[in-house]
Amino acid sequence: MKYFRMPLASLFLAGLSACSTASGGNQALKTATPASINQALHNGVTTDEQVKAIYGAPDKVSYTDSGNEIWTYTYGSSSDKIADAEVFDPTGLTTFLGSKNKSHIRTLTVLIHNGIVMKHNLNDNTSYAGTGVFKQ
């Protein structure tokens, strides 16, 4: 029985340190900063075609009441810690411990009037959520 406990304990500890990461969206925004966006986009000067050349087609296009276009580009990533450990833990202890998630979403919004960028904004948002002992 002693030999059975050691591999089980090792598997359990490895599971506790388990984590997963996912990301998706516009890869050009992955490392974007307000400064890098301001270097690429100039209000009143940059055209919609130049925006497409830099960032590709927008993820979403909406319109203002006056007919201006609002282009939205998004990049997001998420990482989970300990949540995957439940697969390795037959004791159920990790369910008690819970998990912690970090989500990061970066959104570029561009207001376009007659094919010219009028305004642009980069929003960077990081949020955390947890369950069990990691609950905030």
Query: What gross morphology would you assign?
Result: elongated
Helix content: 25-40%
Distance between the termini: 39 Å
Query: Mean pLDDT score, rounded?
Result: 78
How many E strands? Answer: 5
Main β sheet profile: 5 strands, antiparallel
Order of helices and strands: HEHHEEHEE
Percentage beta strand: 35-45%
Count of helical stretches? 4
Structure classification: alpha+beta
Low-confidence stretches: 1-17
What structural keywords apply?
single chain, 136 residues, five-stranded antiparallel β-sheet, 4 helices, 5 strands, 26% helix, elongated
Structural write-up:
This protein is α+β, with helices and mostly antiparallel strands. The chain is elongated, with a radius of gyration of 22 Å. Strands 1, 2, 3, 4 and 5 form a five-stranded antiparallel β-sheet that branches. It has four helices and five strands, in the order H-E-H-H-E-E-H-E-E. The model is unreliable at 1-17 (pLDDT under 50). A hairpin with a 5-residue loop joins strand 2 and strand 3. It has helices at 2-16, 34-40, 48-55, 93-97; strands at 19-25, 60-63, 69-81, 100-113, 116-130.
